[in-house]
């Protein structure tokens, strides 16, 4: 339809980057593009930490489950949901902040997601590649300690950015008929639609250039969701001042 939509629909995760640094001015522009994202009630609850220190990078790569590109990517950013500055704003106005509400956690986390996606699209518009690193939450307390994160701040995910040195295929997304519904949630035909989608995903995995698989989407998801999903997250977040009420 237009170049922006074409760019959005051509997203791929890039995990191999050329040994080519990105100018700080470019990173600044990307983060400013992130700041331009929609923000709930002007809350602006995202803080970005650019990690340059090689030793910290190596530790973060290990904490993320051995994802080596965290260490080797030209740029690595950590996106944090941040309600700490809002506490400061209240103090500056002699107000007592009411914190710990689940709604605050949701709005801060959504703010981070919107902010980061703006950064991702801005980077891709410059022919850079990105990959999100949710694996930081595997060792979220250790990541927070390494980055000196205070209470009311938590790392949502990381992002590697660099000039791509690989050309992976675009993964087929769910059928529009499964995702876009009209007036109500009607999933009466979703079983057959997902079965058809499974066949497309299997074809994709069997035809791509590397990491060949023989799986569809539903068996991947069912295999993932029968396992615990980072049960340490709730006590960690509550300890940091989130989701208390």
From TrEMBL:
Name of encoding gene: nfsA
Pfam families per record: Nitroreductase
Domain Nitroreductase: 9-162
Native organism: Neptunomonas phycophila
Superkingdom assignment: Bacteria
Record's protein name: Oxygen-insensitive NADPH nitroreductase
Gene3D superfamilies: NADH Oxidase
InterPro entries, sorted: Flavin_OxRdtase_Frp, Nitroreductase, Nitroreductase-like
Keyword entries, A-Z: Flavoprotein, FMN, NADP, Oxidoreductase
Family in the record: Belongs to the flavin oxidoreductase frp family.
GO MF annotation list: oxidoreductase activity
């Amino acid at each position: 339809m237009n170049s922006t939509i074409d760019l959005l629909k051509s997203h791929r995760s890039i995990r191999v980057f050329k040994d080519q640094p990105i100018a700080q001015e470019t990173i600044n522009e990307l983060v400013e593009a992130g700041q331009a994202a929609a923000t709930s009630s002007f809350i602006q609850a995202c803080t970005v930490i650019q990690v340059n220190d090689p030793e910290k990078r190596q530790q973060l790569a290990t904490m993320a489950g051995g994802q080596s590109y965290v260490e080797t990517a030209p740029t690595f950013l950590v996106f944090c949901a941040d309600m700490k500055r809002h506490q400061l704003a209240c103090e500056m106005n002699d107000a007592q902040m009411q914190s710990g509400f689940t709604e605050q956690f949701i709005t801060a986390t959504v703010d981070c997601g919107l902010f980061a996606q703006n950064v991702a699209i801005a980077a891709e518009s410059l022919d850079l590649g990105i990959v999100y690193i949710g694996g930081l939450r595997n060792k979220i307390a250790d990541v927070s300690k390494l980055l000196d994160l205070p209470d009311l701040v938590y790392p949502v995910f990381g992002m590697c950015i660099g000039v791509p040195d690989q050309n992976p295929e675009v993964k087929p997304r769910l059928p529009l008929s499964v995702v876009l519904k009209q007036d109500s949630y009607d999933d009466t035909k979703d079983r057959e639609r997902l079965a058809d989608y499974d066949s497309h995903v299997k074809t994709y995995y069997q035809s791509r250039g590397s990491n060949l698989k023989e799986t569809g989407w539903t068996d991947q998801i069912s295999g993932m969701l029968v396992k615990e999903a980072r049960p340490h997250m709730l006590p960690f977040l509550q300890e940091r001042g989130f989701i208390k009420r």
